Amino acid sequence: MSTTDKAKNKAQQISGKAKEKAGQATGNPQREQRGKTDQVKSDLKTAGEKVKDAFKR
Q1: Alpha-carbon distance 25 to 2, whole Å?
Q2: DSSP output for 19-51
Q3: Which residues contact residue 34 at a Cβ distance below 8 angstroms, ignoring those fewer than 6 apart?
Q4: Whole-model pTM?
């Protein structure tokens, strides 16, 4: 996993957490759900990168 990919995934994770918290604070369930979705996407990308790295060895 390249450093750039790690940084992008971490940024998406942080952005998702911020959206989730903003949705909770404003009572906006759609924004909260989008934040959770962003976090899941980031987790899946990270897992996919780890699998690719495992097969490179």
Answers
A1: 35
A2: HHHHHHHHT-HHHHHHHHHHHHHHHHHHHHHHH
A3: 16, 19, 23
A4: 0.84
Q: Token pair for residue 54? A: 């495992």
Site of tokens 């959206």: 19
pLDDT the model gives residue 1: 66
Spell out, as residue ranges, where the chain has pLDDT lower than 70: 1
Q: Output the CA–CA distances (angstroms, integers) from residue 47 to 12, 32, 44, 51, 54, in the order listed.
A: 14, 23, 5, 6, 11
Per-residue pLDDT, 37: 97
Residue 44 contacts residue 18 (beta carbons within 8 Å): no
